[in-house]
Amino acid sequence: MVDTTPRWYVIQVISGTEENVKQSLFQRRESFWLEKYILDVFVPTHDVVSVRAGGTKVKKKKNILPGYILVEMVVSNESWYIVRNTPNVTGFLGAGNVPVPVSGEELDKLRGKIDQNEETFTTKFQVGDIALITKGPFEGNEGNITDINEKKGLLKVNVNLLGRDTPIELDFSQVATK
C-alpha cells in the first residue's frame, strides 16, 4: 500500500474541529517521525466580515468545506494509520479503506475559489427594512432598504430628501435597523 508520490487527499472530520485536527496532524507527524510522509495540511477558508450593532465590523475565517480538510501525503500503512486515528478524524474520502487522491483540476478549482472569495459580508438586514443612518452626511435620516450587496458590504436606502425618495448607497457600518 505504498505510493511514493505525494498527493492531496480529503479527510472527513467532525465539523468545527478542522483547525484542531490540522494542529494535531502536524504534532503527530513530528511525534511519529512522518515528516517525509505527511507533508502539508490545508483547511480551505475565506474571510467573512459581519457588521454588529453600532456598525463595528468583525472579520472571521469561515470554512468553505465544513467537515473536510485536505492533506498532502505519501500513503503508507503508517501514515494512513496515523491520519485515520487522529482525534476527530472520521475517515478519508474514498471507497472503503483506500483513500482517493484529489485531482489537480479539483485542487486548482478549490484554490481559485479561495482566492476569489477574499471577503464576504454577512448581515441581518433585509430588503424592505427601515434603516436609520448612523454615520455620514445623512446621519439621522431613515429610509427603506431597497438593495443589499453582501459581496461589497453595501446597502441602497431610499431616503426622503426635499419631498422625493432618493436612493443612497451606504456601507453596512453606516446603518442600523429600526
The CATH superfamily of the largest domain turns out to be NusG, N-terminal domain
User: End-to-end span in angstroms?
Assistant: 63 Å
- Which geometry do the CA atoms define? elongated
Give me the CATH fold name of the largest domain. Alpha-Beta Plaits
Q: Please state how the strands of the largest beta sheet are arranged side by side.
A: 13-12-11-10-14
Report the C-alpha radius of gyration, rounded: 23 Å
Helical proportion?
Answer: 10-25%
- Count of discrete domains: 2
Top CATH class of the largest domain: Alpha Beta
Please give the CATH architecture of the largest domain. 2-Layer Sandwich
Write the layout of secondary structure elements.
Blueprint: E1 7-13, H1 18-31, E2 38-42, E3 45-51, E4 57-63, E5 68-73, H2 77-84, E6 89-92, E7 94-95, E8 98-99, H3 104-116, E9 119-122, E10 130-133, E11 142-149, E12 154-161, E13 164-171, E14 175-177
Parallel strand pairs: 3-9
Antiparallel strand pairs: 1-5, 1-6, 2-5, 3-4, 7-8, 10-11, 10-14, 11-12, 12-13
Describe the overall structure:
The chain has helices at 18-31, 77-84, 104-116, and strands at residues 7-13, 38-42, 45-51, 57-63, 68-73, 89-92, 94-95, 98-99, 119-122, 130-133, 142-149, 154-161, 164-171, 175-177. With 178 residues, the protein is an alpha+beta fold. It folds into 2 domains: 7-119, NusG, N-terminal domain (Alpha-Beta Plaits, 2-Layer Sandwich), CATH 3.30.70; 123-177, Roll (SH3 type barrels). The strands form 4 sheets. A 5-stranded antiparallel sheet has the order 13-12-11-10-14, with no helix packed on it. β10 and β11 form a beta hairpin. The longest helix is centred in the N-terminal third of the chain and has 14 residues, at 18-31.
